[in-house]
């Protein structure tokens, strides 16, 4: 069940488009941090009384590290007559109306309806939100910034795009040119109903040279073979092939994760590419200085799926990490940065660099 509390806003700590970080005094529990999604609950000001969802923090799950505003008692009722008929978070107390790019009232409806193919557009498919930055940086580094990069955020993890500091920083730095949210995810430059129309919107409306697809922050995992939201990587690869794109998969690689199931090639990658993906893709391995690590990756892949199922290539992901550093973008995954777990970030960067070569040959 949802744990709710009422509190009074004591301070506005920070804000960026779509989200406001606030401090709220909760009777008997002190002053605590919360997030307000402006699209859902309107603007918030100091002194407002708000209703909070405190479930995750009370369970010490650390989701977002804060509470979330469910309703602003002090704010006036919002007008819901704006254009759009598609509901996201459907049949929940937080359902939100959006104008989907493909619906009839959208100015982009005809363009999407008349586009049935990605026409060979490369699509980098990641399994974690933290893969987004090095992948995008690799694309930009390999093309001297010329390639137009469009990020498609799925609903495999966090649903509000505005929660992601990383996505905001990547746009501000110019590493991402446009963003699309699909399924129940919301907050992108364009809203779409599913991964297929998201990919077509990226091609026909956002004019992507390279598309990067990954969930938002907060992957769900259970340590079981199929019980993690990253299985969507295989499903997305299928979608890209159905639409005539060129899928490039980022393998989840780590030599710093203490869990054996994630050492070298993660069991997430083995399941998503070996079992869920029914069509082929290119798997990009990073060039690593440690020959033993490279050897282990090759051995694991040889056991993960039939040799002829996917094309396996290698690329240098180093320029992607250099590009991130040059633009002042700090990245982490599971609390580790490139210095702690270089193989993880080099893999994502290598995939971006390889995809850039498909989009703009000769760069």
UniProtKB/TrEMBL annotation:
It comes from the Bacteria. Pfam families: DUF3866 (PF12982). This is DUF3866 domain-containing protein. It comes from Desulfoscipio geothermicus DSM 3669.
């Amino acid at each position: 069940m949802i744990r709710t509390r009422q509190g009074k806003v004591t301070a506005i700590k920070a804000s960026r488009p779509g989200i406001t970080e606030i401090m709220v005094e909760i009777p008997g529990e002190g002053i605590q941090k919360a997030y307000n999604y402006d699209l859902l609950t309107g603007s918030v000001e100091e002194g407002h009384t708000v209703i909070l969802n405190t479930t995750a923090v009370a369970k010490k799950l650390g989701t977002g590290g804060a509470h979330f505003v469910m309703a602003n008692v002090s704010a006036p009722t919002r007008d819901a007559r704006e254009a759009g008929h598609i509901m996201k978070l459907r049949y929940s107390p937080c359902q939100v109306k959006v104008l989907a790019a493909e619906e009839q009232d959208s100015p982009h409806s005809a363009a999407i309806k008349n586009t049935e193919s990605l026409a060979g557009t490369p699509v980098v498919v990641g399994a974690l939100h933290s893969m987004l930055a090095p992948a995008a940086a690799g694309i930009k580094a390999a093309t001297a910034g010329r390639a137009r990069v469009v990020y498609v955020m799925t609903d495999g993890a966090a649903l509000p795009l505005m929660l992601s500091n990383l996505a905001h920083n990547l746009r501000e730095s110019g590493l991402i040119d446009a963003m699309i949210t699909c399924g129940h995810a919301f907050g992108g430059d364009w809203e779409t109903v599913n991964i297929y129309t998201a990919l077509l919107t990226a091609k026909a409306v956002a004019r992507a040279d390279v598309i990067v697809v990954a969930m938002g922050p907060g992957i769900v995992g259970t340590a079981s073979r199929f019980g993690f939201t990253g299985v969507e990587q295989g499903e997305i690869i299928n979608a890209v092939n159905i639409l005539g794109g060129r899928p490039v998969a980022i393998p989840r690689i780590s030599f710093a994760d203490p869990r054996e199931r994630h050492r070298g090639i993660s069991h997430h990658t083995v399941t998503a590419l070996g079992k869920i993906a029914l069509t082929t893709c290119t798997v990009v391995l990073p060039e690593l200085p440690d020959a033993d690590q490279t050897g282990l990756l090759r051995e694991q892949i040889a056991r993960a799926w039939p040799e002829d199922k996917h094309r396996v290539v290698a690329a240098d992901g180093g320029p992607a990490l250099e590009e991130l550093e040059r633009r002042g973008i700090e990245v982490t995954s599971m609390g580790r940065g490139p210095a702690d777990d270089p193989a993880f970030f080099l893999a994502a960067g290598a995939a971006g660099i390889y995809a850039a070569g498909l989009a703009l040959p000769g760069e």
